[in-house]
Amino acid sequence: MAMESARPVSLTGIKPTGDPHLGNLIGAIRPALQLADSYDAMYFIADYHALTVLRDAEQLRHYTRSVAATWIAAGLDTDRITMYRQSDVPETFELHWVLSTVAAKGLMNRAHAYKAARDKNAEAGKSDLDAGVNMGLYNYPVLMAADILLMDSDVVPVGKDQSQHVEYAADIAGTFNHLFGEHKLKVPRLVLPEDDAAKTLPGIDGRKMSKSYGNTIPLFAPENQLKKLVRRIATDSTPVEEPKDPDSSSAFLIYEQFATPEQLADTRKRLEAGGMGWGDLKNELFEVINAQIGPLRARYDELMAPGSELDDLLAAGAVRARARAKVVLDRVRDAVGIV
Question: What is the mean pLDDT of the chain?
Answer without folding.
Answer: 93
